[in-house]
Amino acid sequence: MESGQQCLDKRLLRRSFNAAAASYDATAVLQREVGKRLIERLELIRLNPRWILDIGAGTGATTRRLMQRYPRARFVALDVASAMLRRARRRAPLLQRLRCACADTESLPFAAGSFDLVFSNLTFQWVNDPERVFREIQRVLRPNGLLLFTSFGPDTLKELRQSWECVDGYVHVNRFVDMHEVGDALVRARLADPVMEMEYFTLTYRSARDLMRELKALGAHNIIVGRNRGLTGRQRWFAMEAAYERLRAAEGLLPATYEVIYGHAWGTQPVRQTVDRSGAIHVPLAELGRRRFRAR
To answer: Do residues 141 and 115 lie in contact, with contact meaning Cβ atoms separated by under 8 Å?
Structure first.
């Protein structure tokens, strides 16, 4: 985990997303739009995957789009919340089978070299150790397989975070990893030719409470270990709302910024190495000079 990142409570994460399964689709407008844009990026890449893993599939709206794009491929949807996966399975196209795995993204329950494409839309912000996740993806990707993903960056919900900071010293909004740190984690995980981009979205709300209700419906609670577990008093709520009110735009609505990170990288051949009696590791020079695969 990066030094500046805070630890997420995984049990609360699972509980929050299970509880949000019924309300998620009605509020996940941004998630669907970002997923649509991520799939559109596949039009620029020549890829004919046989096995596809969708990490953080949720209720399966973006998974279904991906299945329609690759009707001959075999799909596995992975999510931490079983209630989400039940909805995803029902949403799959009639003539395609969606295999589901309820598991931790940081410990993928698949054999090495299982997938040609690993796809993930707005999920990696909910992990404690991005580098560990990318090492797992490198392991399950076939050589020259593709990782394509989005995640939230640190400017996400900055208005809500700043408004709470005017009230007390507790962490009320989850903190997200910077694009450059994500790119560095890809490199350390030995994923090849990483490319990172970023885009801002601004959603608007009639009140701060409307924003908070939407976040709850999405399962996007504050799940930081060590957060304030007590009830937030009325005075602090009113103080946060008053701070947020200073940001009200001329149109009469409150802004909420979302920083979306787009990334892709390629799987690499496993490095052949030997260990001698002294414990020294030897890697052939040919392996060090191996050219990385690029999309054609």
So the answer is: yes
